[in-house]
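A protein record pairs a chain with a discrete description of its three-dimensional fold. The shape at a given residue is found from the number at the same position. Here is what such a record looks like in full:
>
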Amino acid sequence: MDIASAKGTAPYKKYLVRTMAFMGGYVAINVAAIFGAFDDIGHTAGLILGLVVAAPVGGQIWATLALMAESDEFVRALLAKRFIVASGLAMAIASAWGFMESYGEAPHIPAWIIYPLFWALFCLVSPFIRTSR
């Protein structure tokens, strides 16, 4: 069995529904922000908005962890290995960039970029991590 055959399973279908639900809210809030819906909300409301936008990110990570927990042992091990490698690479890159900002005057990058960076790295490492060993 390979990871592609897991796509028709009940855990994968639940994952898709959960991901769409969480990312739907995330996209809606950010599209509203792009079009200026929150331009004049003030400091406290801006802090709350930041937490509201971050909530679907946490939900989507939970959806991925739930997929791992609900899948068979091979899919669980493969996803976990990819998740761990992508997380480690994202943290290493973010740390390196932070040090370059501190010591080398590299331009600032917002901290939220770690989330899309993680998923980009997850996509990049997945073709190379094909076994659970």
Helices lie at 10-34, 43-70, 73-104, 114-125. Residues 90 and 117 are 6 Å apart (CA to CA).
